[in-house]
Amino acid sequence: MAESTTTVKHDVTVGFGCIELTGALVHDDENRVLELELDEGPEPISISLQGYGLTPGPGNVFIKDWSEHSGLTARLAQAGLVTPVHALTGVPYCSTVYEVQVTL
Fold first, then answer.
1. Could you say which DSSP state residue 78 is in?
2. 3-state SS, residue 73
3. Is the pLDDT score of 103 beyond 80?
4. I need a labelling partner for 55 at 20 to 30 A (CA). Which of 2, 31, 47, 49 fits?
5. Using CA atoms, how far apart are residues 78 and 4, in angstroms rounded to an integer?
6. If we measure between CA atoms, which residue out of 15, 33, 14, 32 comes closest to residue 23?
7. Across the strands, what pairs with 102?
8. Residue 30 is assigned to a structural domain of this protein
């Protein structure tokens, strides 16, 4: 039987600028996805950069730092949910994307 690559932390509140959402934070390591599962459906936290030839390391995801996600990496790190690994600038849109280790 294969080991699950999905980790879930329930009752997590994530601040997106002017709103806060509470749900289950789900990390699918195999697909490098982090999302907040809400009653209305999933709210993506991570971003894929495969179109740029970039894949985060095992246990890691990319999080954008613009628009509604501005400051999101810092808030998730402060809550102990991720640990920033490094920042990528200029991909995409001349913006900043953080590679983070998910620490649920």
1. H
2. helix
3. yes
4. 2
5. 27
6. 14
7. 82
8. yes
For residues 46 and 62, the answer to whether their CB atoms sit within 8 Å is yes
97 found inside a domain? yes
Task: Check: pTM over 0.90? Answer yes or no.
Answer: yes
Measure Cα distances from 3 to 6, 10, 65, 76, 91 in Å: 9, 20, 32, 26, 33
Tokens linked to 75? 């808030």
Count of structural domains, the chain: 1
Are the C-beta atoms of 30 and 59 separated by less than 8 Å? no
Which percentage of the chain shows pLDDT scores above 70?
97
Give the C-alpha separation, 76 to 84, whole Å.
Answer: 9
42 in a structural domain: yes
Q: Strands, DSSP E only, in 29-59?
A: 33-38, 41-44
- Residue with structure tokens 């459906």? 41
Which regions of 1-104 does DSSP assign to beta strands (E)?
Answer: 6-16, 19-28, 33-38, 41-44, 60-64, 82-89, 96-102
Whether residue 1 lies inside any domain: the answer is no
